[in-house]
């Protein structure tokens, strides 16, 4: 989806939710939002969907493929566990509609009549606009509805974080993940716990990936399992698998059960391989294209915000299905080649015949020699049936061959460089 105009929640309540085959899964009943730090719009976490058995479940927004006046189209598995509001979340219809607010430039109180959400870059959705009407209107009096930017509505979301933690989170919001990790590494444990609690899940996930393993475990183990599952869902699957492998087994299984089915499936798949093999190192979400994809399609796929620069170096052509494990693997195309070709050319005609895929059983030594031999930063991994099951990037290999404490040492060195600077 590329539309940036707002969709008002009242318009999608009651719409049928359909899977890719056109089968109705249920009906949309509400929208779940979560406040964010740094004066950013609240994030739309997902939909509350009522199944035919009258059970209400949660469905994440990143798997919503399209929204129109008649239906909502989704992809992926549906978690049928009964929906419960988590900490720091709020239901738009149940908890925001009809709430009284007082804007700075309004002479009278107003109530929230509706809320508009919009699709942003990547897979994210956010709260965009709020429709307000006069709160103290007389019965049967028609009231003008005013639509304002979300930022004009004061404190309609709870902000439970302590003031010092909130200030720290605002300061960290402008830093790169590695710098956020260094700050967390150096914080007093009490302040760090408060900051972690106040951070957005996606920002915390990025920072966790840069922390030493023992500190990652400490942070996750201190959370309630619902929040831990949310954060791990935001991490790259290979990093999440590495972290879960370090947790106490009972806690690890509890968190996996709380994760969305597709995210948990990816992690479980990685955990089934030896950590020192290509299967254990790979990311199961590479850039995959069908045989009829064009250069324009490929460039749009590698341009997605969630695709890392290393993962974007290669696009993989496969036969349907295109989710891993895919249909038969056809080949790989370099992004540099894509940039040099006309947009209408078929990607399948640009495959590099010299790239041979790895097997999930390839050990770290073999994978390292592979990258050195072919001078690549990304490589395909296929199973015995020649289906693409993931891709390895060179940073995945470096993470494994460097000493276990390299992240901690790097953070300490950063401290020295900053203090000497």
UniProtKB/TrEMBL annotation:
Which portions of this protein are annotated as coiled-coil regions?
none
User: Which InterPro entries does its entry note?
Assistant: CBS_dom (IPR000644), CBS_dom_sf (IPR046342), Mg_transptr_MgtE_intracell_dom (IPR006668), MgtE_N_sf (IPR038076), MgtE_transporter (IPR006669), PRC_barrel-like_sf (IPR011033), SH3_actinomycetes (IPR058838)
The family database entries (Pfam families) matched by this protein are listed as: CBS (PF00571), MgtE_N (PF03448), SH3_actinomycetes (PF26205)
- Keyword rRNA processing assigned to the entry: answer is no
GO MF entries: magnesium ion transmembrane transporter activity
Q: Which UniProt keywords apply?
A: CBS domain
Specify whether Chloroplast is a keyword of the entry: no
Describe the location of the CBS domain by residue ranges: 351-411
Can you quote a single GO CC term? Answer: membrane
Task: Please give the name of this protein.
Answer: Mg/Co/Ni transporter MgtE
The species this protein was found in: Propionicimonas paludicola
